[in-house]
Design a protein that fits this description.
Number of strands: 9
Helix content: 10-25%
Order of helices and strands: HHEEEEEEEEE
Structural class: alpha+beta
């Protein structure tokens, strides 16, 4: 009887762990954003990191925001010319995401390849975004999302990849 009880408890714990890791367990606003971005939850913030440099940012409306994108995977990541940047704020009233325009003009055209960290490569790139904050008057939490894909090769198909960071910007 004791073995059956222990087995049942182990099964229940395993089932709870599986449910906890499910994308359906994410808060509704997070699920909504992932659906908008068309990026699987398991590929968000898993293959790359987005950080803020220690200096160079004022976090004020109208000023560009410097970002550091690092490939932490073993695969080359492919991004569009604008790094697939999308800027969002969460509307407290509707509890939904509002997208802000990125006013940055990127000089590069075509795809950008970001190889993994290696002997001959840092695996990182720095770039900026400039959110259109003209309609805002209060400090907001800005979510910067970068999206791309893994490089297809051999038997591996390309997968959507995303990374985000949140920061507060003020007038």
């Amino acid at each position: 009887m004791k073995k059956i009880a222990i087995t049942c408890i182990a099964i229940l714990i395993a089932a709870q762990l599986l449910l906890a890791c499910s994308p359906d367990r994410l808060p509704k606003k997070e699920r909504n954003l992932l659906e908008m971005l068309e990026i699987p939850a398991e590929n968000m913030n898993a293959l790359a990191e987005l950080t803020l440099p220690e200096s160079g940012n004022s976090y004020q409306f109208g000023d560009p925001i410097l970002l550091d994108l690092v490939n932490v995977s073993r695969h080359t990541l492919i991004f569009p010319a604008d790094y697939g940047v999308r800027l969002f704020i969460n509307d407290e009233e509707s509890k939904d995401w509002a997208e802000l325009e990125n006013l940055t003009q990127y000089a590069h055209s075509g795809e950008r390849q970001l190889p993994p960290i290696g002997k001959d490569n840092t695996g990182e790139v720095m770039f900026s975004v400039l959110p259109d904050t003209q309609a805002l008057s209060e400090p907001v939490v800005l979510r910067v999302v970068v999206s791309g894909r893994t490089m297809a090769g051999g038997d591996e198909a390309a997968e959507a990849v995303g990374v985000y960071i949140e920061l507060t910007i003020s007038p």
